[in-house]
């Protein structure tokens, strides 16, 4: 399997305009200014009520031409998990890596990179908007998450998809979640390639989520597990993601 050219469209450099005085060094920094926090992270009631009700969640994110891609695609969050397990997988070029698909599925899966590459592929050139205050455009390639979930036989009770990652925060794996609307959106893919090459470590090798209608912290990197669940209760502190649980980021980060 190789990172062949599949997409069309590209990147547009540029930054996300932040609130006055906002300067974030990384997604692992807590926004200190109360006014900034109110602007960036409005309450769950606002996000999950008005925004989700008013937005057309089936709409596509803009896609760009190849020549519009950013010259450098920055890394958000973790740059390298650097755990013994990850280092062992990396040393073997991820030949032994498997993406576990479980939870409320009829047929649990253990997918290799070759398995992901053998599935129908989608390539898209889209813009990544990060709460750090930057954006970049790159070409991503991989199978649609919806196709993977169909292969596993999603059960009727499933309502959310939870992603567990190789990088550790506070000694525990990073985690995120989305609902089924985003999971089956045509632009939500499990990307194994960036700009026609296998993902670099800093960008989430060997596989990351791309959920193009949401902010960057929802795009979980270094994927190890995908679980279909009926509720977010019992996932971390119950808000659906590491940043949501610990820094009050909104669970729904639609853009």
From TrEMBL:
This is Oxidoreductase molybdopterin binding domain-containing protein. Residues 95-228 form the Oxidoreductase molybdopterin-binding domain. It holds the Pfam family Oxidored_molyb.
